[in-house]
Amino acid sequence: MRKTLIRTVAIAAMAAGAFGLAGGIASADELTAPVVVPSHPTGADYVNAWNESGALLGAGAAGLVSSAWAGAIPSIIQGAAGSLG
Length: 85
Known about the structure:
The protein is mainly α. The protein has helices at 2-27, 43-84. Helix 1 crosses helix 2 (43-84).
């Protein structure tokens, strides 16, 4: 039961991350933060604000992952060199 729950949560988290990253990577270059909704919004304005916010979240997640990966490589190399010497 516990393994199944952990696996299900892990799969859901990876899927959500993949969708967020894909949305952010696809359209982050043309977006600005914060997302502004007009003073007399229509339904489409709310949908556009929601989509732009999701794309910004995806772009932020992609930046976080790439920064973490860039920082992990020197740590791994330093740790491996320390254990050898």
